[in-house]
Amino acid sequence: MGKFELETAPPSAELLEIAKQELRETPEVRAAAIEELRKLLEAATDLNYPNDEEFLIIFLRPTKFYAESALKLMRNIAEFNKNYKETLFNLMPSDVENVFIEHNIINILTNRDQSGRRVMIVNMGECWDPKAVSEEHIFRVLYTIHKLAMLEPSTQINGVVVIYDFKGMGMKHVKAMSPGGAKRLLTFIQEASPLRVKGIHFINQPMLFSMVWTLFKPFVKEKLNKRMFFHGDKLSKLHEHVHKEYLPSNYGGSLPALDYGGKEWYPVAEQHLEFIKKWNSCGFK
Fold this sequence. Notes:
The protein has helices at residues 13-23, 27-43, 53-60, 67-83, 85-88, 97-102, 135-149, 153-158, 171-175, 179-191, 209-216, 222-225, 235-239, 262-270, 273-280; strands at 47-48, 106-108, 118-123, 160-165, 197-203, 228-232, 283-284. The chain is α/β, with parallel strands linked by helices. The chain has two domains: 13-87, Helicase, Ruva Protein, domain 3 (Orthogonal Bundle); 93-274, CATH 3.40.525.10. The protein is globular, with a radius of gyration of 19 Å. The protein starts with 12 loop residues before the first helix and ends with a strand. The mean pLDDT is 96. This is CRAL-TRIO domain-containing protein. One of its GO terms (cellular component) is membrane.
């Protein structure tokens, strides 16, 4: 088991080489893109974003250092935060502390996968009590985790993988999901998150899952659709994407079974409150 901490150190030479190959990142391209994005932000008088280099890189890496695309992403995020203001306004870790600590719905592996990607596991079945935790609560936790992930250069460059585990899912879970919640989640993933989502994997889906997929399917765009994989209980199929050497035994992997969860991860969020406040200040003026 690794330590519960964010990897905020500057990227290694190896990581910068990946960024060069995949994201066009070189010192020259980076400097020019930052300068251009600062000018665009200055001209965008309705937007409020810090313009320090470290912060701007969060938006430039997923848009491959095209400043206009980065500005569009910033505008999309501002629009999303406005549309879901009641859910997200000034959201702090303490607002979702009980979901982190008392309900083991969302977990982040302490290790990365074979491609250096963060791996998040979302338990949408037996671990989820919809009476205690609504789909809005789950989204607020996901949103909080994404703020933290943005701080990691290695995650900015390599991206993330999400595993949705539906083991033990029943009708009470299906009833707790809504078209509005599905739209909010997919709009966030596809339009309003700076994270590079490299794969979404569905495992242990019961027959009932078809009802859930009916909620989500209308909002899935082609790019994301190509990165969604449905494995059922065939974990060997999951291992083709996330190698078993990097997964706990709960998921057919060769690492020890998970013995940690949100309770262990929550203190990490409390260590980065200044960045979270900074992020919360972004959006439309």
